[in-house]
Amino acid sequence: MYRIFFSDKLNLAVAIHSGPFIGAEAIVAGKEILADARYTDMHILLWDLRRVTSMTLADTDRAFVLQSKKHLKPFLKARHVLLFQTGNPINEIHNQRSERLRRFSPLPFQMKTCSLTQAADWLGVDEQGLNSFLEKSLDTQK
């Protein structure tokens, strides 16, 4: 499951994933962001995976890469962060997924981290503003 949020102040699009990460969920979320009228080429992206409870290696083959390139081409040059929770078992699975995909599609503007400080720095936004926005977004999910 995921929810999409936008911050005009931070020029940020966020996909907050929670629960089981199902198949090509990232592609579905990315397509939703791109279809949203609020999204522009100036947006930076944050994929918050800290609340993901399970993930598999399903959908990490070449077809997934081709689908990503076809539907998410604008994201290839967009600065974005994948934010993980320290110690979450899905982190290793996600690393394996990333390695399988990276062979076909390098992402030089992507950072993976467990640190909100590093995420904010990479995205070029105020850490306190980012944290506040994420907390407000999470409150609306309840």
| CATH fold label | Transcription Regulator spoIIAA
Q: Roughly how many Å is the radius of gyration?
A: 14 Å
User: Can you name the CATH architecture?
Assistant: 2-Layer Sandwich
Strand content bin: 15-25%
**Helix and strand run:** EEHEHEHEHH
> Could you report the average pLDDT, rounded to the nearest whole number?
86
What shape does the CA trace take? Answer: globular
Task: Determine the CATH superfamily.
Answer: STAS domain
Straight-line distance between termini? 13 Å
Describe the fold and architecture.
- With about 140 residues, this protein is of the alpha/beta class.
- It has a single domain (about 1-140), classed as STAS domain (Transcription Regulator spoIIAA).
- It is about 40% helix and about 25% strand.
- The protein is built from 5 helices and 5 strands.
- It has helices spanning about 25-35, 60-70, 90-100, 115-125, 125-140, and strands at about 1-5, 10-20, 45-55, 80-85, 110-115.
- The chain has a 5-stranded mixed β-sheet, sandwiched between helices.
- Helix 1 (about 25-35) links the parallel strand 2 and strand 3.
- The radius of gyration is 14 Å and the shape is globular.
- It starts with a strand and ends with a helix.
- The mean pLDDT is about 85.
Summarize the model shown:
The protein has a single domain, classed as 2-Layer Sandwich (Transcription Regulator spoIIAA). It is 40% helix and 24% strand.
